[in-house]
Amino acid sequence: MGKRIEWLDDAVFYEIYPQSFKDTDGDGIGNIRGITDSLDYIRDLGCNAIWLNPCFESPFGDAGYDVSDYYKVAPRYGSNEDLAELFSKAHEKGMHVLLDLVPGHTSWDHPWFRESQKAERNEYTDRYIWTDSIWESPEGYASLRGISDRDGSCLTNFFTHQPALNYGFYKPDRPWQQAMDSEGPMATRNEIKKIMSFWLSKGCDGFRVDMAGSLVKNDPESKGTIALWQDIRGFLDKEFPDAVLISEWGEPDKSIEAGFHMDFLLHFGPSHYNDLFRCDAPFFCGKGDASEFIKRYLESRRKADGRGYICIPSGNHDMDRLAKYVRGDKAKMAFAFLLSMPGAPYIYYGDEIGMRYVEGLTSVEGGYNRTGSRSPMQWNGGTNAGFSDGEAGSLYIPIDPDENRPTVEKQAADEGSLLNEVKKLIAIRMSHPALMNPGEIEFLADGAPGKPLVYVRSCEGERILVVLNPTETDQELDDVRLKELLYVLGEKPESTDDKLTIKRNSAFFAVL
User: Are residues 93 and 109 in the same domain?
Assistant: First the structure.
């Protein structure tokens, strides 16, 4: 990993999907000025860092994850100057901003790809991964075929319109597969460094990297991809040593070795993250099982060997909303977990007020089932919930139609709201070194069926017990003596000299 970045030790991130956050020009699409105008809200919540989903020029076949110009803000969001102003205003408030970098593929509308499709050899011929014949598809990968005069099939990364950029093959086994140090892959790598430099020079604090573990092909143990990112980290350490890198990888032992400061536990793959929040019986609804998640989490910490951070988000733009499964006091308990675990917490915009998953929406910009989690932020009881002054039909995605939908305005006025609970939890976290990002963790109970989740956070001589009991039965702990209760949800625990009774549907933090 790169050098230690001090601000990451107490970072609490807020993820913003820019087209759905705040519209200031009435066109129905959120923009950068809307984010800048909302910095005080984010800071008052307690978040001091922002992850901004892609805001670069794009045909928006995949909501901006199909980039057509990495060096230009999409006009619907504003200008490069608007983005630089966001960086500057955030820094004035002691906040940091990470951009979403999509290095694995571009849109097929990108000028690089248009050049790469030409039969005549040129600078961009090898910027993407092509076979030597239209009749050969890349084995194990989807591909584009018959789209131009170039004789070959082009590998794609996600949707059909997202051709994969060429970083080479760790073990080439076909004539058309290029080694990592070939001219084409090296040109791609160098271009990514230029893109990073461009935005870091304008005040960006770093990048969340999309599909970071997928760049080098035929790389089953990720050795080539790790080496690629180590090279990029070395470049950053020379030119921009304070640049933060956060990976969408899901294997912290690999990503942190590769030079990333943080990795996410993902809702796909082996983490069992969904056991907590998003399954038929989530742990935080009181009838689930957290034990396999804890087992995998501890394995990841052991493999990472104390380096970097493992991040657990409340959700993101690719998941169903948290409130689809976990609501009311259960949602408060879920946030008590998220905001008392090691690593930097991530709050997806609107989760702090319990925004709902909007059912039955037609797909927007490649969202499909994800569209219901990308509806506009609900600020107040005004037009379009305060998101936009535009006509309802012009909105990027329709507002949640429920007239009882939660809003910032309503929840700010309600002392017992989820919003105020999240503010309280972040404030407690920030006040105690043991609860901050670098603190250690020891599990006393792993949330097996019918059991609570209990752990001790520790740092600088401070030890804090965290107890989360979403079950319908009281629980007991032996030989636990509490010095001071910091936080209580539901009923207070009953404590004697040798026994602690944890009430059902309750949670608390206590100094030991």
Answer: no
| Residue 349: count of CB within 10 angstroms of its CB | 28
Determine the longest span between alpha carbons in the chain, in angstroms.
Answer: 82
Indicate if 236 and 365 belong to the same structural domain. Answer: yes
- At 238 the three-state DSSP class reads helix
Instruction: Measure the N-to-C terminal CA separation of the chain; round to a whole number of Å.
Output: 33
If you compute the radius of gyration of the chain from its CA atoms, what whole number of angstroms results? 24
The CA-based angle 428-315-288, given to 5 degrees, is: 85
Q: Is 177 domain-assigned?
A: no
Q: Give me 200's structure tokens.
A: 């870091």
Average pLDDT, integer, range 294-299:
94
Residue 266: its pLDDT value, please? 84
- On whether residue 169 sits in a domain, the answer given is no
Residue 172 Ramachandran class (φ > 0 left, ψ -120 to 50 alpha, else beta): beta
3-state SS class at 467: strand
Does one domain contain both 227 and 267?
yes
**Residue 160 is part of which domain span?**
105-164
Locate 511 and state its tokens: 């100094």
Token couple for 24: 């200031």
pLDDT tens-place string over residues 85-115: 999 999 999 999 999 999 999 999 999 999 9
Distance CA 347, CA 225 (A): 28
Let me know whether 273 and 292 are in one domain: yes
Polymer length in residues for the chain: 512
Same structural domain, 137 and 203: no
Distance CA 272, CA 285 (A): 16
Distance CA 439, CA 463 (A): 10
Cα–Cα distance measured from residue 5 to residue 7, given in angstroms and rounded to the nearest whole number? 6
Please name the residue ranges forming H helices in 93-208.
111-116, 183-201
Which residue spans within 329-401 are E strands per DSSP?
Answer: 346-348
Give the CA-trace dihedral at 501, 503, 507, 511, to 10 degrees: -20
* Domain at 452, CATH number: 2.60.40.1180
Residue corresponding to tokens 């990112």? 229
Are residue 126 and residue 203 in the same domain, yes or no?
no
- Sign, CA dihedral 363-366-368-371, equals negative
Q: Please tell me the distance from the alpha carbon of residue 184 to that of residue 187, in angstroms, as a whole number.
A: 5
What string of H, E and C letters represents the secondary structure of 350-363?
Answer: CHHHCCCCCCCCCC
Model confidence pLDDT, tens digit, residues 121-165: 999 999 999 999 999 999 889 999 999 999 999 999 999 999 999
pTM: 0.97
Q: Which residues of 280-318 are buried (b: 16+ CB within 10 A; e: fewer)?
A: eebbbbbebbbbebbebbeebbeebeeebbbbbbbbbbb
3-state secondary structure of 455: strand
Alpha-carbon span 330 to 283, nearest angstrom: 10
Q: List the structure tokens of 381.
A: 């009881």
43 is written with which tokens? 């800071």
